[in-house]
Each structure stands twice: as structure tokens, then as C-alpha cells.
Amino acid sequence: MRLFGKLVLISCFIFLLLFLLPACKRPLDKDGGYYDEKTRTYKYVKPKGRGSAQQVYAPRPGEIQTIGGTVARIDDDAKSVWVMIDERKPYMIMASSLSSNNRDDKNKLIRLSLSFVSPAGSVNGSRNFRQQWKKYAIQVMGNELQNQKVLVEFNYEERSRRFFGNLYQTVKTKDGSQTRDINLWMIRRGLSFYFIDQGRSKNDDEYLKAQQFARKRKQGVWQY
User: Fold this and answer.
1) Cβ–Cβ contacts within 10 Å for residue 96, how many?
2) Is residue 73 within a helix (H) or strand (E), and if so which, with residue range?
3) Which domains are delineated in the chain?
């Protein structure tokens, strides 16, 4: 019996070695983990206990959070933006609630669906025309936002496991630095109608005025 017990312990020890050895051999990054190409997820091995400049908590439906980041690219749907979060810790806290198509662990990117706007949903016509319009909207948004620092104000939708909300950007004007609501800017620029299918903006009057401004000047979608 003693011999049998020893054999079991040895077998368990060998199994643990075989299980842990691949992870141990992987080079760890500064945050104490690595990106697994097979599962396309980030895995902690020896998490670093460093504090974070950005304090976030696990997303909860109905609660608005904010976090700073850098716009990496505009999504092909023309209404979503991929934002890079500089620090690994706050990124992981946020991304853990997202579906795989709304996060990119390798590059620390989260996908934000912009509220109240939809360039693709603002035009009719042929498929070719709608595709051209989407490309135009993506290009204009990219010229304005690519590699720019932004503040993300988001809410978590549990059913689809995604974030939706607003982007804010600091811009310099003749009167000094000002905060620009990118969602509002898109409507004023004529890149989209003001959509209220999921509720109105807290700044409803400003959004309506922005739409009237674009319509009066026949900007963007209002040309058609």
C-alpha cells in the first residue's frame, strides 16, 4: 500500500510538471503573463501587483464608466471604434466581460459601439453606394481620430457582451482647449442621423441642434 501511495504521488508530481512546464517556458511580459496565440487570450502566470493610474472595476449593466485610451482604428461597420488601453491591468478588468469579437488581448484593444449614430443606417440606395458611403465615413473618422487620445464613456450590455457609449476628444481652438463629443460631431458633420432607437442622449437638445445644422447646410447624408 505504501508503494502504491508513493507511485500515485510521483504520478501526480509528473503530471503537474508536464502541465506547468509549457507555461513556465514561455517568456513573461512586464505584467507577469503572456498572450496565447492558440486561444487568442492573455493569461497571467505571475501577476504583478503594481497599481494603476486608471481605476476601473468589472463592468456592470446600467452603470457608466470612463477610461482613457488611444484610437487604434475605426471598425468596418463605421459606427464602432477600437481603443487601445495603455495599461494591462485595467484592460483585463474591462475585457474579461467582453465577447471575443469585442476585445483584442494581444494589443489591449476594446471595441466601443458609438451611441446615437449609424452612418451605414443613415443612407439608402444601391449596395455599391452604401459601401462607398461607409468607406467615406470611416476615412473621415479615421482622419480625425486615428492615434488620438480619447476618453471613453461606456455602458456594458450583458446580452451581447459589448460596450456602447460616447467618445470624447480634447481639441485646440482659438478659445483654448475644449472637449469634443465625437458622437455629436459625427451628427453635426452629417456623417449620421441622430438615432434614438435605444433612448435619447442626455444632451438631447444639442444633438437635435447638430442635426438641424447639418440638414440646413446639406452636409454629408443630407445631400441625398
Assistant:
1) 11
2) strand 65-74
3) 28-44+52-179 (2.40.50)
Query: Cα-flanking dihedrals φ and ψ of residue 63, to 5°?
Result: -115, 125
Distance of CA 110 to the CA centre of its chain: 3
Contact 170, 178 (CB under 8 A): yes
Q: Which helix (H) or strand (E) holds 186?
A: helix 182-189
Q: pLDDT per residue over 135-163, tens digit each?
A: 999 999 999 999 999 999 999 999 999 99
| Residue 197 dihedral angles phi and psi, to the nearest 5° | -65, -25
CB atoms within 10 A of CB 1: 5
Per-residue pLDDT reduced to its tens digit, 52-90: 767 888 999 999 999 999 999 999 999 999 999 999 999
CA distance 84 to 82: 7
Are 46 and 28 within 8 A, CB to CB? yes
* DSSP conformational letter for 19: H
Angle of helix 182-189 relative to helix 204-216, nearest 10 degrees, comes to: 30
- Strand pairing class (33-36; 41-44): antiparallel
Q: Record the pTM.
A: 0.85
Question: 104 and 112 in contact (C-beta within 8 Å)?
Answer: no
